[in-house]
Design goal:
about 350 residues, 7-stranded mixed β-sheet, 11 helices, about 25% strand
Length: about 350
Amino acid sequence: MADGPYKYIRDADGKVSRVIRVGTRKSQLARIQTDSVVEKLKELHPDVIFEIVAMSTTGDKILDTALSKIGEKSLFTKELENALEKNEVDLVVHSLKDLPTVLPVGFTIGSVLKRENPHDAVVLHPKHKGKCLDSLANKSVIGTSSLRRAAQLKKRFPHLEFKDIRGNLNTRLKKLDEKDDFSAIILAAAGLRRMGWENRISQILGHDDCMYAVGQGALAVEVRARDQDILEMVSVLNDSDTVLRCISERAFLKHLEGGCSVPVAVYTEVKNSQLYLTGAVYSLDGSDSLKETMQTSISSDNQVEEQEKVDEKVQRVGITALKVSEAAQDAAVKLGVDLGNLLLSKGAKEILTVARQLNDAR
């Protein structure tokens, strides 16, 4: 039974319930992440039926090429957005770091949930149990398909070698454990924790060793920008600190025109109503880098203003965060742009251009 774009179901007793279809990638981690969001929505809306629709994306299918070489911004999101556009699903759960800083027209991120630990983790081959990156033998091979991780770790651990490794979490762990190609692999701590594989984490890399990717560790719910009621429904899931941190990170990345194919890293913190953003750019081998920190006030003196009618204009780097102070969101955007400008004035463009050309030539 459909009423416009909405779907309803009548049960045996004649009770009519609204059905909301939630799109997700098929991987086990994506399903776990989507289930966790749907659980929260079910608690808030017990009368609504949530239906999960899983699909494969381009990024899930191309497993033999480093992501940075494919150069497509919406590798893990395009198929899901197509379904959203065709009204086949009503909202989509993503890892925020998979979502480009500019979304296709008509879509917005309606909520960013409380962030899991955003740092990277070292997972050792079982035979190296008890070691850390520092204590691994000379020329030990570390698996990572992230230019950002490799650039920072090459500089920090010059005795190690770094090679590409692709596949979802399960595949990468299997490649590590069942072959002798890698001494360790680097993965996001958040994914390992959500999968319940914390026992495999040998070391969490602090921001002095390896700053994280923009949006890492945060889940995002993407919706159609015109669906006011769905936007309202998911906005309750917004975590204010996470929203502000991720807005500043995304604004920084967007200003640098960074993406998968260049090494850009961030570290953010909210402390005493101040938002701190550290951002860095690296050459592919990490030998050349620029890193700066800036801060801004996000004081709660600016109470949430009367919510204006939402349209595309209220999006900040793809995010429409109702129930989060607009003044604080604007301050977060400005912080990201200002830090981007500071790095650009010191030569970030040149470092990133060379990194992009070298990566394309690999």
